[in-house]
Amino acid sequence: MPLKIYGMTASPPVRLVLLTAEVLGLDYEFVEVNIDKSEQLADDFLKLNPQHNIPVLQHDDFIMNESRAIAGYLVRTFDPNGNLYPIEPKIQARVDQRLLFDMGITSRAIEDIIIPILFGRKLNKNDEVKKKELDKLKEAMNWMREMIQETGYAAGTHDLTIADLNFLVSYSTIRDTKMVDTEEYEELEKYFKRLSELIPNYEKANGEGSKLLGDHYIKMLSLDEAHSKHSSNK
C-alpha cells in the first residue's frame, strides 16, 4: 500500500511533508483535505485524526499527524543512511534544534501575522502591535541568516537535511505573502534559490502551494485594509 499524505498544498506544514517525500523519492498518494471547506471535520477524516489538523500520514496501518514528526518518521524509515537526518548525535541535535526553532519562533511569527487575515478575525491591531509582530519575524529571519552562514545549510552540515526543508517552507511563505521585502536578505535569497533547485519536483511539493497561500493572503489583506479604511471614514 503506498503512503497517503492528507492535507492541502497551501498549508506550510503539509508542504514540509511533501518536500520530504519528494527528496526521498517516495511513491505516495496525496489526498486533498480542504480546511476552508471544513473537510477536516468529516467523519472519515476524524477517524484518521481526531485532532482534525493537517497533515496526516497513513503508512499501512500506521497513522500519525504533526508535520515535523511525520518528516522525522519518513527519514528514519526510508533514509537509513541518515542523509536527511544525520545519525551523529551532535549533528542530529542541531537539526532538531532548527526544527524546534522554526516551530516556536519563525512559524509562530508568520502565523501571528497571517492567520487573523486568512480567517477573517478582526483583532483591531494598532500600528504598534503590527510593528512588533513584523519585528519578531525579521528577528527570526536574521537568526536564520546566521544559521546558514557556516556551511550554507541550516544545521551546519554540508548536505541537505530536513531542517533545510523546514526553512525553505517558511522562507517561501514569507516570500510569497510579501510580508517582508526578502530582497533585503541576500544570503537567504541565494540559499532559497540554490536549495529549491536541488529538490525534485520542488514546484509541485512547495512552490505552487506557497504561491497559492501568498496570493490568497494578499487578496484577503487588501479586503481587510479596505474594510478598515471604510470603517474609519464612517
Automatic annotation (TrEMBL):
Which residue ranges does the record assign to the GST C-terminal domain?
88-221
Give the species.
Lepeophtheirus salmonis
Give the protein name, as stated in the record.
Answer: Glutathione S-transferase 1
| Gene Ontology terms for molecular function | glutathione transferase activity
GO biological process entries = glutathione metabolic process
Assembly mode: Homodimer.
Q: Which SUPFAM superfamilies match?
A: GST C-terminal domain-like (SSF47616), Thioredoxin-like (SSF52833)
Q: Where is the GST N-terminal domain?
A: 1-82
- Superkingdom, taxonomy of origin: Eukaryota
